[in-house]
Task: inverse folding
């Protein structure tokens, strides 16, 4: 089932030798040069355990200057490099395919500045998302993004994947909240774009090239990000709907009636719920009196508890009376709220425990989204468990197909069908996880030939030897150095 099985190592890349190691030790010291087998084994293996590289070297620089020296050297030696953050990526983008050098900025984890008046945080790219969340919590602020991988993922990785997550419906994507960044190009050039301005229309806004480029254009070393204030009133409802149409109508109503306090709108179907309850310890069904086909999590965030409660309760009364919602519960305290979130955020982990998983991350018109799930169940019958959940409020379906083992019969029933179906709806084959290795050759399902060609020209301009994250994002056949 390896995604790399058809990829061939680019022969123009060098193989590391002892002179290279000596040079890296000279600039980084012993601690920055990792050759320990166990550590390399982890760094060579992706979160899904689907992809395994054979890198013999991981570098851990402590400054932008060191990143620049590393890349300058790798570029001149034609050594391929994989930028790696928390290694929580889900498309095989963060691990080597062959023997690429792994570059991890985990040692660059300082907060550079935080301005309480504006809420602008400037930090190094290796900061772990959860640490930033805790830091800001003390200051009375929150991060504009939140996701299940927060305990491991780095802000540099989040920016490089343009991670969406659970709050995008409220705070928008990182293309909006990232105000500036610093990046190092393949030849070691440091690009200082670390502005902290809300508005800056002085020509092309090149930072956007690095947001979501999955380490293929440069290493993100610093980030400046706009953070929202932490508001005092957060409420979470766990609701059940009898059918998908009701979920959609509920979203429509929530946007109208909860308006400015709506901060998350997530869905999971019964298959996802069953899987979580079966594989994760210590979780209980919040609505145990009967089974339901669909579950919705609605979070509200506002500044006045009494106002928010009144609004939310009136909304819930209305949607229960009209039959859109068949059952529901409001979390009573922070522990209950986190157990509700754990159900939703724990689905990827439960899927891993259940066995093999084929993962698709699609943007689709919400009214069509669940048709795909139903069709997929028809195609697979009892061969696999089709699990659907995701960021319904953003039109993002996480379609996961779970089976005891990987096998070609299952795969042939899923692909290319799932990509063709998505393309026909003018959807995206990657809403938020990126293309990585898994979908580099599938890009044409979502982007026109002319667009992909221009992307390849930009890649070649910024990284002429193609040393940065090779075999990922773009089809290798389009790159001039291949
Ligand atoms: P990695 O996985 O290490 O790398 C990801 C990509 O970014 C790779 O291509 C890598 O080369 C590149 N990269 C990493 N750091 C840098 C850098 N400093 N400079 C340049 N390139 C770099 N994603 C969502 O969008 N929304 C979710 O809700 C969500 N939930 C998740 C839940 C779980 C449990 C898991 C395991 C993953 C989830 N993801 C989600 C996937 C998501 O892509 C990652 O969690 C996160 O954004 C990646 O950060 P990371 O530091 O782990 O990067
Ligand atoms: C989520 O929203 C993540 O939980 C992971 O993006 C999605 O596992 C997945 O398919
Ligand atoms: Zn997601």
Result:
């Amino acid at each position: 089932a390896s995604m790399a099985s058809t990829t061939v190592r680019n022969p123009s890349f060098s193989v590391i030798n002892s002179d290279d190691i000596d040079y890296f030790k000279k600039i980084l010291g012993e601690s920055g040069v990792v050759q320990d087998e166990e550590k390399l084994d982890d760094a060579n293996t992706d979160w899904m355990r689907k992809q395994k590289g054979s890198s013999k070297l991981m570098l851990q620089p402590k400054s932008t200057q060191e990143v620049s020296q590393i890349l300058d050297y790798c570029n001149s030696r034609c050594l391929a490099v994989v930028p790696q953050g928390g290694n929580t990526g889900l498309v095989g983008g963060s691990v080597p395919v062959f023997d690429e050098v792994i570059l991890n900025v985990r040692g660059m984890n300082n907060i550079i500045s935080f301005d309480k008046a504006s809420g602008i945080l400037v930090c190094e790219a290796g900061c772990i998302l959860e640490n930033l969340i805790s830091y800001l919590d003390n200051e009375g602020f929150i991060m504009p993004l939140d996701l299940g991988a927060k305990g491991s993922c780095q802000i540099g990785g989040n920016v490089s994947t343009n991670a969406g997550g659970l709050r995008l419906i409220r705070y928008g994507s990182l293309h909006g909240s990232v105000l500036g960044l610093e990046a190092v190009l393949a030849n070691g050039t440091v690009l200082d774009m670390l502005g902290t301005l809300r508005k800056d229309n002085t020509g092309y806004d090149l930072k956007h090239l690095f947001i979501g480029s999955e380490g293929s254009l440069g290493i993100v070393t610093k980030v400046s990000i706009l953070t929202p204030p932490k508001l005092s009133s957060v409420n979470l409802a766990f609701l059940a709907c009898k059918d998908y149409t009701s979920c959609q109508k509920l979203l429509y109503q929530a946007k109208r009636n909860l308006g400015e306090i709506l901060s998350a709108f997530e869905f999971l179907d019964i298959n996802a719920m069953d899987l979580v309850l079966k594989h994760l310890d210590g979780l209980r069904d919040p609505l145990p009196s009967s089974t339901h086909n669909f579950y919705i999590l609605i979070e509200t965030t506002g500044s006045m508890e009494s106002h928010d409660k009144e609004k939310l309760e009136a909304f819930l009364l209305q949607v229960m009376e009209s039959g859109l919602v068949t059952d529901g519960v409001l979390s009573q305290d922070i522990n209950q709220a986190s157990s509700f979130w754990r159900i939703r955020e724990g689905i990827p982990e439960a899927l891993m425990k259940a066995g093999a998983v084929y993962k698709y991350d699609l943007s689709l018109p919400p009214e069509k989204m669940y048709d795909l799930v139903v069709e997929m169940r028809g195609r697979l019958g009892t061969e696999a468990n089709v699990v659907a959940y995701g960021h319904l409020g953003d039109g993002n379906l996480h379609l996961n197909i779970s089976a005891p083992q990987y096998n070609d019969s299952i795969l042939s029933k899923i692909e290319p069908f799932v990509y063709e179906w998505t393309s026909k709806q003018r959807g995206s084959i990657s809403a938020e996880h990126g293309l990585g290795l898994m979908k580099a050759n599938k890009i044409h399902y979502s982007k026109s030939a002319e667009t992909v060609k221009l992307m390849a020209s930009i890649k070649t301009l910024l990284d002429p030897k193609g040393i940065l994250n090779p075999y990922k994002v773009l089809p290798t056949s389009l790159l001039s150095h291949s």
About this structure: The pocket of (2R)-2-hydroxypentanedioic acid (ligand 2) is lined by residues 148, 347-348, 359, 361, 398, 400 (CB under 6 Å). The first helix runs from residue 18 to 28. The chain has four domains: 18-106+458-478, 111-226, 233-347, 355-445. Residues 233-347 form a domain with the Alpha-Beta Plaits fold (CATH 3.30.70.2190).
